Structures are given as C-alpha cells and as structure tokens.
Automatic annotation (TrEMBL):
It comes from the Eukaryota. The lineage of its organism: Eukaryota, Fungi, Dikarya, Ascomycota, Pezizomycotina. This is Telomere length regulation protein. The gene is FYV4. It comes from Coniosporium tulheliwenetii.
Length: 164
C-alpha cells in the first residue's frame, strides 16, 4: 500500500529533499540507517519517527488517541466511577464513593447514559495539531555539552570586570 499523504509534514526537512518511504509497513520496519538512506534528515527527524513508532507499538496513544467514537474530529469523554478491589480506593472521599475509582471513557456522540454509574458531564476532546507533541527542553547556557564551558567563561569575565 503506497502512502497517499505526506507523513513527514511535521518534520523539519527542506521541501526539495526527496523522502522515499514506499509503504506504511516499511515505515514501521525501517531502521535508523535505512531511514537515513531514504532521505530522512537530520538525525533529530529520524529519532522523532522512531520514538513515535515505538510509542504506537506500545499502545501509548496519548489523550484521546485510542478513542473509538470520533465524529467530525472530536471524541466525547465522560468521567465515570467503576468498582475496584484495590485497597488504595477502599475509603470514600468527598469526590468518590468507597471501593470505586474514576476513569474517563469514550462514549458515542449524543450518548445520555453509560452502563456504569455515569455522574460526570460529557467533555469533547478535539484532535488539534500539537495535542500529542512532547515539548523538548529549552537550551540553557549553550546546551548540555557546552554548559560547563559557557559558565566558566562567564565567571572568568565577571572576575575580570570586578577587578577593574
């Protein structure tokens, strides 16, 4: 099955660089070296693809990523209480009954009643761009590798200015 839409639109690759990944199956089986040969540059883009491929294989879809009932790009979630035998939930609290825990479930659009005691209201979850993105840390003092060097130079400069 050939790819019908560009899957690498979020990666920072120049538009003039041809990327050739023939099928979805090959995307899920290529190694980093094979992705490089296919034209996926820089290394950050390859790591991004490999990271999300592994998350998908492990079933880590993120908020609403495993929703069965989606209509017009929105999934409806309802918070419900379900019985549990865990001793952690044995005592009642102000927000939950004894022996119950709260979970979010995906319900079909317009569903009024859920099988298990539904008390919460329905909340729509929209799949917008960037919903599942993981933010990278910000670079402080030249990054992890250069941090000691940059800070040493800064201290030396401060010492020089304090002597003058």
């Amino acid at each position: 099955m050939a790819l019908r839409r560009p899957i690498l639109t979020t990666l920072h690759t120049p538009p003039s660089t041809p990327i050739h990944i023939p099928t979805w199956e090959s995307l899920f089986s290529l190694s980093s070296a094979q992705l490089r040969a296919a034209g996926v540059e820089p290394a950050r883009a390859r790591r991004y693809l490999l990271h999300w491929r592994e998350k998908f294989r492990n079933g880590e879809f993120g908020v609403g990523g495993n929703a069965k009932y989606v209509k017009d790009g929105a999934a409806e979630l309802r918070v419900i209480e379900v019985p549990t035998t865990s001793p952690r939930f044995a005592a009642a609290t102000a927000t939950r009954a004894a022996g119950h825990r709260k979970v979010a479930v995906n319900v079909p659009a317009g569903t009024e009643k859920v099988d298990v005691g539904a008390k919460g209201e329905v909340v729509p979850v929209l799949g917008v761009r960037g919903l599942w993105e993981e933010k990278r840390g910000r670079i402080v003092d030249g990054g992890e590798r250069r941090r000691a060097e940059v800070r040493a130079k800064r201290r030396a400069e401060e010492r020089k200015t304090s002597r003058a």
